[in-house]
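anyone seen this seq b4? input:
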Amino acid sequence: CELFNDRAGTPVLLKKKAIVTGNQLIDASQSFSQGRPAVSIRLDSKGSKSMLETTKKNLNKPMAVLFVQQRQETSEQDGAFVNRTVLDKEVINIATIRGIFSSQFEITGLTVFEAKDLAILLRAGALAAPIFKIEEKTVGPSLGQDNIDKGFAAILYGLIAVIVFMIMWYKGFGLIANIGLLVNLTFIVAILSMLQASLTLPGIAGIVLTVGMAVDANVLIFERIREEINNGNSPQASISAGYQKAFATITDANVTTLIASLVLFTFGTGPIKGFAITLSIGILTSLFTAIIASRALVNLVYGGKTIEKLRI
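predicted toks r here
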């Protein structure tokens, strides 16, 4: 056995013989297992055989991932600079073997950040040759910051345009829709924060699209209410009928978009997944705010009152 340290500096005693080495790793990618962050791993035939034998004999026992990094270190000896190769070894993950597997398996019990980091380190460990740092430069974050600023500006301008249009076109009902829109954006940011998801440019694009889509449901409802009023129904009956008759259309439209975003998330990679995640979250929160939150606000303002004329 040999003693190593994990990232927290805690000593970990491991057997000297490795079960699988980096050159037997085909791929390691961040994924989700039953809605929870995970790392999906694929091994070649040799690694699969070794993993199968090990998991059969070690069910419910821990298995560690040891990251070995080879780097060059320069030191001065007798007035001359000498380069030497240094091996850094660190335990980056310890998981419990929960089943018998071989070529494909998942590491779970991670946060989104931990899963992403572990997948990157596993792929780096599969490199056939060490990487040496020859030159180092620091590049300012001005370009990335500029793109982020433009993305947030797009959200702000889109939000202002929607707010102004809804108030001008639907009066008091437009104000209710705008409150629901702000609640919707708050939910999106809160859920992304809970998932510890990074807000990328495609993710910002998904939020911008959600801003426009979020009021679609309210527009359908308000137009239904207008139709009922034009047909001679009372304001209270028109409000009730408007929400009831628009419900099926709103649900169908959002469910079809949600299916498309789930397909993007399943088969897409990188930026496409970021867009799909924010779009999916936006669709679900939009349904909630349009059908439940805005209805609650309308009932609060107009419910239990005798209304002779409804301005919409």
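Residues 2-125 form a domain with the Gyrase A; domain 2 fold (CATH 3.30.1360). The longest strand covers residues 80-96. kinda curious what u guys think
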